[in-house]
Design brief:
Among the domains are: about 30 residues, no CATH class; about 50 residues. The protein is mainly α and about 140 residues long. The longest helix has 24 residues. The chain contains seven helices and no strands. Keywords: Nucleus, Repeat.
């Protein structure tokens, strides 16, 4: 037993570990920096009361969210105000439904533009006067 050396005095591993811990302690951030980075709690309460304070804040937040959810408008009101789409399709298909509706509108507009009457036809039908030409710029 007398042959054993105390681990802290001559053991090179513990000496290196000790030096690294000392350096880490020297570079350790201050308490206010840790509070700013939300690592330490920013509270004036005693450590024994901090858990209760956190629980109280959690309950306040829960109550606030429950109140907001209770006053949330119904789905029908949101559909009336065009906030939600009026769709009976599954949510996964609603995007495809919107794309299909837009494509159908584009096709309809293109069809109407292709069958659009010429200015001569409009003059013949009495919709335009002979001196009016919508293609001429003023």
């Amino acid at each position: 037993m007398s042959d054993e050396m105390p681990p802290s005095s001559t053991n090179p591993i513990s000496f290196e570990r000790r030096n690294s811990l000392e350096k880490a302690i020297q570079n350790r951030p201050e308490a206010h920096e840790l509070r700013e980075r939300h690592i330490l709690l920013n509270t004036n309460a005693a450590p024994a009361l901090q858990a209760q304070q956190q629980e109280l804040q959690r309950h306040k937040l829960t109550d606030s969210l429950n109140k907001a959810i209770a006053s949330r408008p119904e789905k029908d009101a949101l559909v009336e105000r065009n906030i939600l789409p009026d769709s009976t399709a599954a949510p996964a298909l609603q995007n495809h439904q919107r794309e299909l509706a837009a494509a159908m509108r584009r096709d309809s507009i293109e069809k109407h533009l292709q069958t659009r009457p010429s200015p001569a036809e409009l003059i013949k039908e009495g919709i335009l006067e002979a001196n009016e030409n919508p293609l001429d710029e003023p």
